[in-house]
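Please fill in the sequence for the structure shown.

STRUCTURE ENCODING:
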């Protein structure tokens, strides 16, 4: 059977690099697209010689390089830690909006499945604990976290619109705080649970 060809945007980041590793182990061909805004080549350096792995330096908010075949798009590209999105507010809004539309466009062009890495931050300052998926959240569109929260809320809306309008096969993963090897020390993620 032919290998699944998977595009991982933000693949040189903390979560993305583990995902690239796992997908290669599962037999996927993996294109890791990253502009290294917050990610590092070191995160995927050990994969560079692996058969089926390709690292592409590109900004997901710009027109994306053409690909022969894409079966699955995993869209992770976005600053994610509070320190990063505070330092990169416009870039964060662009990654969630233009970047998501571009990644959805790739999935649509290739008839690929699309999965968005969303976040528990779409619930804002939740009034319900724990948050079920049916809870719509309590967000502040002009607060200090708004560039991230609203970008991800837009990204979710764009994903669902493509599903409803174009019949795209989509998924949304609302990731909660994740910890592990390759996190950058002092990247600010711990602040969200203080
Ligand atoms: N780590 C967590 O606890 C957590 C929680 C919820 C959601 N998420 C989501 O998971 C995804 C990955 O998060 P992470 O913790 O690995 O963060 P990270 O900063 O380590 O990884 C994000 C990657 O996206 C890349 N990127 C950013 N803007 C880009 C652009 N315009 N074009 C191309 N690449 C770009 C960065 O260079 C980086 O490699 C993000 O979408 C984030 O919102 C993470």
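FILLED IN BY: designer on duty
SEQUENCE:
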């Amino acid at each position: 059977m032919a290998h699944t060809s998977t595009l991982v945007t933000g693949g040189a980041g903390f979560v993305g690099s583990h995902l690239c590793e796992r997908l290669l182990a599962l037999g996927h061909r993996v294109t890791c697209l990253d502009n290294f805004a917050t990610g590092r080549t070191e995160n995927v350096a050990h994969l560079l010689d692996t058969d089926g792995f390709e690292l592409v330096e590109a900004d997901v908010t710009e027109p994306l390089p053409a690909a022969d075949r894409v079966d699955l798009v995993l869209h992770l590209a976005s600053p994610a830690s509070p320190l990063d999105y505070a330092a990169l507010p416009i870039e964060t809004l662009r990654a969630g909006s233009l970047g998501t539309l571009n990644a959805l466009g790739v999935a649509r062009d290739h008839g690929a499945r699309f999965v968005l890495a969303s976040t528990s931050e779409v619930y804002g300052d939740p009034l319900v604990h724990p948050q079920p998926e049916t809870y719509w959240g309590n967000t502040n569109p002009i607060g200090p976290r708004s560039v991230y929260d609203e970008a991800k809320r837009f990204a979710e809306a764009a994903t669902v619109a493509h599903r409803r309008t174009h019949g795209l096969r989509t998924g949304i993963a609302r990731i909660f705080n994740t910890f592990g090897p390759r996190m950058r020390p002092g990247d600010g993620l711990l602040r969200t649970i203080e």
